[in-house]
Structure of Levanase:
Amino acid sequence: MAASLAGIKPLLNWLAYCCIALGLVTSVQGAQEWDNFRPKLHYSVQLNWLNDPNGLVFVNGEYHMYYQYHPGSSVPGPKSWAHTISRDFVTWSDLPTALEPDELGDIWSGSSIVDFTNSSGFQTNVDVYPIVAVFTHAGQSQQQSIAYSNDWGRTFTKFAQNPVIPNPGKQDFRDPKVIWYNDESWILVLAAEISIVNNILKQINLYSVGDRVEFYISQDLKNWSLSSDFGADPDQGLKGVWECPDIFPLEFDGETVWVLLVSNGGGGPNGGSNTQYFVGTFDGTTFSSPQIDPLFMDSGVDNYASISFFNEPRGRRVIIGWMTNLMYANDIPTGDWRGQMTMAREVRLAKNSGNALRLRSLVVDEIVEKLVDPNQEISVGITGIAPDTTMYLTDSVPWNNSLMHLNLFIDVGGLCQGCSLSICFLNSKEQEICSGYDHGRERPLFLDRERSGRTDFNPSFSRRLSAIREIPLDGANNILQFEAFLDLVAIEVFFDGGMTPMTSLFYPEEPYTFVEIRHHALGNINSRLSIASGSVFQGMKSMYEV
Ligand SMILES: *[C@@H]1O[C@H](CO)[C@@H](O)[C@H](O)[C@H]1NC(C)=O
Ligand SMILES: *[C@@H]1O[C@H](CO)[C@@H](O)[C@H](O)[C@H]1NC(C)=O
Ligand SMILES: *[C@@H]1O[C@H](CO)[C@@H](O)[C@H](O)[C@H]1NC(C)=O
């Protein structure tokens, strides 16, 4: 939850009223377009405003996703926890709002856990494990509170002695994520800024140490003790207001490696908000990482506030993020609803060609199995693409919904210096989104939405994103793997087996139905580019039609 929005709440409330009035006028013309902007591979809110995913938890056959929700309008305002559930990450069923504001404040981001051992004492029925939600109460200050459910997450009772972690005099103090550590303790990590006084000094550049995360420990989810902090001393990572941390172990080569995710409100490599991560160790008290520079979980722009599920039944680490950027989140041209999530992703560790551990992300199997349609497949043979020519993968896709999955292996080893490969999705209005590889650049991977359609709603939206390439240790430099899931208004690209994901929204005036692969060779007749074996191009089903 962005702190900067809190200070202007009265203004936003006023704007909400004003815009409802305007909405009556524009919705007549805009209805069709707004409906067209609803994604079909991504969860989106039916009406009003959605932001961060909260309280992701699996229990009793159901994945629960709560999320930041403003019931009053499609711009930010007082937040509740909305609720939706899924059994497969594909179809979601919305349930009534789970947590609403009270005298301690609005209900901001947080997590939830299943209390299998009744450590909290909240369990009332031996056959039903309690879900305990841990969240930020945002009132006069930000404080951490809990609420419990004894009906599998449908309804919650707030703990009578909230807050469980009162504000210690900090301006930013929020987004608690709780994990069960070593079968013995609850560990909570939250984002905390320096004290209010130091924050003023920082803003006039008298004090350079910025954001940090803090770790707390508890046996009962009610009584928490501060055990350590990370990020401020020494100064680590990118600082643009830290939010929504998460910490989890991942196995790599028989070793347990800990990963700390920290969303960061601004200053990302492609502008705006981003989710950075640190690879390190955790002993129940202290997280350590030698990393000073940030690494990014996603090299696109539209993946923020990602957190992982508690109790994922297959032992996977599955994450979901809010699919937008704080630069323009409030201006997305979707009318009376605003906000969607990324697809669920599994994250793992892999070594890059420099022998360093990196996160790699892939769309969960369930989505691939249920939505990718092998009956709608266009074969992509082994083909050379001559310099300065375009290969038309389709003149127009034969399926009618414009949802596509590509998994291409492309030999880029013979591209001339400064030459590039672009994979472009287009409509008949010559609007397009292109992604690919610029040979010889320091940040060779790109995703370009400058001509993608409507970009007028915010000056920060139109842009060409670029990223460093992370080649897997066992990968071949010359073969670029390009996997993409194309929704009506969003694309998730996974380069090199998920080593570099790039996620982006776009708003074309009609769906993209043409696909092209372009070889830009700058007149160099010796430049070589070819599609290698194993490449596929397939249609996808809508999540509303399975
Ligand atoms: C959970 O613990 C509380 C407090 O100790 C106790 O009153 C309650 O009976 C326990 N619930 C179950 C189902 O055992
Ligand atoms: C809270 O936990 C601490 C450390 O475990 C313990 O010393 C203290 O007695 C507990 N307080 C309450 C009220 O339970
Ligand atoms: C797309 O095709 C499917 C299957 O043939 C059909 O059920 C559906 O109605 C079509 N949708 C549109 C928008 O034409």
